[in-house]
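Task card 7
Instruction: Convert sequence to structure tokens.
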Amino acid sequence: MTSTALRLQQVKTTGTGMMLFVQSLNTYYDKGERSSEYAAMRTGDLFRRIDPSQIKECEVFAQELRLRYGKDDKVSPAEVYATEYRQFGEKIFTEGIKDRYANFNKLLQFIRIFKEDDRYRIRFCDENVEWCPTKRRGHNEAFNYADSINYHRDRLNETAFILEKGQYGRIIYNNRYVDPDSQLWYYGWHVYNIISCDISECSEKMFFRKDPDHEYRQLLDLR
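Output:
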């Protein structure tokens, strides 16, 4: 038995491995890759494999993948060019602080996670940073809470879904960005796959589900 399999079996025996697992797919593309052929591939690219040997026990474990298209003339699926695994403790369960750049870099971008007993509330929020001029206004659940960093702010900040034990939720959203150095515009298609389960249930294809229990979309008409 491998060390990873042994560790997962030990957690299964003790029953202390309930966690939240997040897969973040981030496909970046330019104006020339906005055609219907590319769009069809993006909308169908909902999940990827995860390496179980990378998984560590914590509160929230995240796999972040960055993808882009090849620069030849052939229309082909986006390829992963960077992979990062991140482990979070209880500090991830926060709406963040007033330093929006710290939130953007230290938390999971555009979502906030709150643990409520054995459930997880997943909230989608506008990050309000300069390199993402795309803004989402409207429903702010914390608008009237004076102790919130979102008090009286006109920004989207709403619950996408609440995950019970064993449930799977998906968030799909898009953005337009500007490179701070070149000032060139580019686009992002983003998918969050989120599962509440025991660490012993993790597998390479744990995110391979076309129809999750919950799905939330925030898709803008980007020009």
